[in-house]
Amino acid sequence: MSVLSGKKILLGITAGIAAYKTASLVRLLIKLDAEVQVIMTPASKDFITPLTLSTLSKRQVHSTFYNKEEENEVWNNHVELGLWADYFLIAPATANTLSKMANGVCDNLLLATYLSAKCPVYFAPAMDLDMYKHTSTLDNLSKLQEYSNVMIPATSGELASGLVGEGRMAEPKDIITFIESDILSKLPLKQKKVLITAGPTYEAIDPVRFIGNHSSGKMGFALAKEAANLGAEVILISGPSHQQIKHSLIHRIDVTTAQEMYQEAHKHFDKVDIAILSAAVADYKPKNVASQKIKKKDATLTIELAPTKDILASLGAIKKHQFLVGFALETNNEVENAQRKLKRKNLDVIVLNSLQDKGAGFATNTNKITIIDKYFSQKLFELKSKDEVAKDIMNEIIVKLDA
Ligand code: CTP
Question: Could you tell me which of 41, 84, 155, 345 has the fewest CB atoms within 10 Å of its CB?
Fold first, then answer.
């Protein structure tokens, strides 16, 4: 899966002949599952039509501050466009646009959006070789890079003028590879290994029955996805769960019982930097597992239970460099209980869910959490989707890792 998958990309097109290549650039981005919004400078429409680009991007293309053609003239808000984007790519970037960008000129929608964008900006210069070498262009290129914009260097080859040299816009597939590897190299969890436990555990009573719980595994799987999206290599140890996950950085290990989860967690704990134990592990298991199906009798049935091993506490007892995160699902005296759990299990952070909060806990798509650290400082979050909650948790971990 590409790091650009699911990302919102603003593609700014300026008036160079290489603009014709943006049709395939948009197509490649869409194929990677990115959302693409195209903004064009008015002059670039001489090189490629907005209709081509809107058809490929499946969105209306903007080139002016308002759309005169529409019945009620619609204002194209450059601030909103800039805030919408995860990444802004300006390709081709002509000498003229680069010069304006370097000097804060904003006489068209693309430039105004550039000035208001908060996301990372990539630009792919395209011009004739002498323009590319000109001192003023070189000054503008270095100024733009000093301003934290990322340049996708032009390549050498035959230019539209017939001259041969540097100034050709990088090919669309190379632009994408460049951006993907740049994003990967800057991910905050790059080269970190994260262990995550998820889902319930099933403790056998006999060959056909078990003791389990309603955990869906959604929270743990959302955490695994988010950690991998942030560049981490993830070992996801999951109890029985219907959740699906596919990511080149996630190694999923399926287990059934608390004992199997314990063994897998201990097998990998040494080599991880962060461990997040979100599984709803059964606290008890049948003391003896019947080898044959237990037959129905008239009398009541008593099953003797024995405690399972507390995986989280056992990792807390041996942890060295690892950043250890546990979960606490509480119904009363929530903060106090969670703080006690944090201390007792030697955690760095505990994520508290209260069953008193509607929409929190098991088998829902949402969660409402409080994150408590080892100094007992608390951070409360709103009710959010589990994907959003996973983002909040990973962000907090990153902040605390760097602190
Ligand atoms: N946990 C674990 N192994 C167990 C039980 C729990 O790793 N055998 C982990 C869970 O994954 C969670 C945390 O411990 O991160 C809290 O589990 P919870 O059941 O809420 O806490 P307990 O310590 O079991 O306390 P209690 O049930 O009394 O609240």
Answer: 155
Query: Can you give the residue range of the structural domain that contains 276?
Result: 193-402
Q: Measured in angstroms, how far is the CA atom of residue 34 from the centroid of ligand 1?
A: 39
Same domain for 166 and 256, yes or no, is no
**What is the SS3 assignment for 176-202?**
HHHHHHHHHHHCCCCCCEEEEEECECC
309 Cα–ligand 1 center, Å: 10
Q: Which of 163, 186, 209 is the last residue of a domain?
A: 186
Ligand 1 contacts (CB < 6 A) are 197, 258, 277-279, 281, 283, 308, 310-312, 326-329, 341
Contact 318, 275 (CB under 8 A): no
Q: Which residue pairs, CB below 8 angstroms and at least 24 apart, start in 206-212?
A: 206/289, 206/290, 206/291, 206/292, 206/293, 206/294, 207/290, 207/291, 207/292, 207/293, 208/293, 209/293, 209/294, 211/282, 211/284, 211/285, 211/286, 211/305, 212/240, 212/282
pLDDT in tens, the chain (403 residues): 788 999 999 999 999 999 999 999 999 999 999 999 999 999 999 999 999 999 999 999 999 888 776 666 777 788 888 999 999 999 999 999 999 999 999 999 999 999 999 999 999 999 999 999 999 999 999 999 999 999 999 999 988 888 899 999 999 999 999 999 999 999 999 999 999 999 999 999 999 999 999 999 999 999 999 999 999 999 999 999 999 998 889 999 999 999 999 999 999 999 999 999 999 999 999 999 999 999 988 789 999 999 999 999 999 999 999 999 999 999 899 999 999 999 999 999 999 988 777 777 666 788 899 999 999 999 999 999 999 999 999 999 999 998 7
**Would residue 122 count as lying in a domain?**
yes
